[in-house]
Amino acid sequence: MDYIELIDRNNIPQHIAIIMDGNGRWAQQRGLERTQGHQAGAATVRKLVEHALKLGVRYLTLYTFSTENWNRPIAEVAALMALLFESIEEEIFVKNNVSFRIIGDLDKLPENVRERLNACVERTAANDSMTLVLALSYSSKWEITEAVRSIASKVKSGEVALEDINDGMISGELTTSFMPDPDLLIRTGKEQRLSNFLLWQAAYSEFYFTEVLWPDFGEEELHKAVYEYQRRQRRYGLTGEQVTKDEKTE
After folding, report:
1. In whole angstroms, what is the distance from residue 154 CA to residue 125 CA?
2. Is 21 part of the annotated catalytic residue set?
3. pTM for the full model?
4. Which of 32, 82, 110, 175 is deepest in the core (most CB within 10 A)?
5. In the Cβ-directed half-sphere of 124, how many Cα atoms lie within 13 Å?
């Protein structure tokens, strides 16, 4: 099935977030080293940026490395950091007018990786066709904890009153405050869990799980995910009848 022909161009998810799972298994199935799977996954990222851009996606957030991933074997972590350093190609962002952002506990990253990432962020800041966000050394529990600390500090100093704390204030303290919450959250590699990714932001995201391993997630798979997203009715706690009525009055 050619899903691109079925997609409604007026209903493209503004923000797609992806848990890129399956690099290691992809490599093992082919008798390769896990690091080779990560290399194949990095190539998929480069292609997917252009595919998402063509669809009209405004924000693409990729779960690249979690805080829990630091507990993986030292050699694998080192290889991932080296691959990350080598994979940041500013020309791709400049050519496609894509801005680059990072969320996560960046202090844990090697200095050379952090400097290269920050340089790319600065150079692409004015680009406005799409924003690519890498979640690096990231976890929602870490992010929410930092937000709570920040708000608690402001309450203690008198800058914020306790009764003024609401969900909008919390959202504003998160590392993702510069972009809307994800409309569609995709996880590749068969597993069906969030793995500490965008727990606050995904409260009303549509989830799409696929058995396809990340290195094999191509343009057609993206189109299929978007098509499935468009077949759903987003109710945000309302009834289906209420949503239909609101749509008719717009």
Report:
1. 29
2. yes
3. 0.91
4. 175
5. 27
